[in-house]
Request: fold
Amino acid sequence: MNADSILEGLNPEQKKAVMCTDGPLLVFAGAGSGKTKVITNRIAYLITQKSVNPNSILAVTFTKKAAGEMQERVTSILQGLKVGKGNVPLIGTFHSIGAIMLRQNATLVGLNSNFSIYDSNDSENMIKELLLERDIDIKQIKPSAVSYFISSAKNDMVSPEQFSFHYGGFVGDMVSEIYPAYQKQLQSQNAVDFGDLLYLTVKMLDENQKVKEKYQDKYQYLLIDEYQDTNTVQYKFAKLLSEKHHNICVVGDDDQGIYAWRGANIKNIQSFENDFENVTVVKLEQNYRSTKNVIRAAVNVIQQNNSRVDKVLWTDNTEGEKISIYQALDQEDEAEYVLSNVRLLQQKGVQFKNVAILYRTNYQSRAIEEAFLKSGIPYKLVGGLDSMNEKKLRIS
Reply:
């Protein structure tokens, strides 16, 4: 593999995104448009064509799986280009990067470098103890609800002292008392929760000029995937790291922003051009995954959103089968419709193991499962732990 192979197989817009290496870059990447290939090839291009030190590149994703896949692909490309194994940039999730920075500067936030990271169960148990100490009925004020408020506050960069000014109501008033005690308890146990990994990191960068400049000079090229899903603390993290060299590349799609319920702010990607000067904008609109019928349906739906950035997804793929929509009377009718279609597929020679049923929320599986139990058709329920909380009912 030679250096030119980095650009081989890329369409014009993908090449533009890969070769635009200096200054702020905003890449609108539609579904199935090859964004991961663009990100990984861009990293390889920076290292091999622009002689950027791999240690100066930081790539941030949202999940460990995505980070691992990106790391594998970058390593494979660089090995093909005969670049040494050790010359791979840091690729990780927001929280894993935050944990690294916190451990390197733990004393600045009142911790030792060997601090523990509490999971949601640990946090809720601590909150439960704090509630019981104050004779608060945990049936009325659940620890999980308090944990949610505290997590939301940290995502919004709201300190324990500021909480009462941002969140009101009965539960908010209760949390304003628990939050400071909870944070103090964590520190006394040399521990942080998941939210602290970014909240404390951003607070540290914001309040310590030397530390901020150290990481700005270390990571002169910043790439962020799924930027439409960033919340306030993640947005500030990106801004602080990139405000000196401005070599920030964000990749995302406001059409795919679905995580407002967990603090994601779609305006972060929509207003990127206002946050930086001389922004280069690239739109990856060619879809390589779906048929023309699927793309047309998706485009017609999403175009009803008047606040979106204008772009049109298209594909060179075949027309594909037409999409059918069935409006069921209720859950039972819907389940019977699904069952009847599975039977039709069976009559056409399709094996059960090649049929999958997707549904949006867990409760929707019950009616479908009951229908299959009554029919005697075997199935396998596959529980998903991904961010959309989806499950798949696979016929076996």
